[in-house]
């Protein structure tokens, strides 16, 4: 029996460095913890992540959720042979935020041979639910090296 779902260790600093130059970095998304069956990240509620009304943009919450599920899915599979791509994501926005940080925790609900389903719970600094999301990933085979 294994104590982790990860096929390779999740090194927080490496994941953050890899995402620094893309949407993750632009939105301030930082992976902060990798447990045996979950990932935790934080994201600021600031000028980069607010809508014009001054509250956290719902689409940015979904970006945090998709980031966590995608990272998780790709660390579950053997990345030399497979990768995971998003197929569907949904989100329920429960409460608004105007400042501080939000925290996302992603856990798998299903880890299949060809699909994965992840649940992502986003909370505020007081651990109150801000957004609940679920994402389905498709597991695809990588092309054989030529």
Automatic annotation (TrEMBL):
Residues 54-131 form the Thioesterase domain. Gene3D superfamilies: Hotdog Thioesterase (3.10.129.10). Keywords: Hydrolase. Pfam families: 4HBT (PF03061). One of its GO terms (molecular function) is 1,4-dihydroxy-2-naphthoyl-CoA thioesterase activity. It comes from the Bacteria. SUPFAM superfamilies: Thioesterase/thiol ester dehydrase-isomerase. GO terms for cellular component: cytosol. Belongs to the thioesterase PaaI family. NCBIfam families: unchar_dom_1. This is 1,4-dihydroxy-2-naphthoyl-CoA hydrolase.
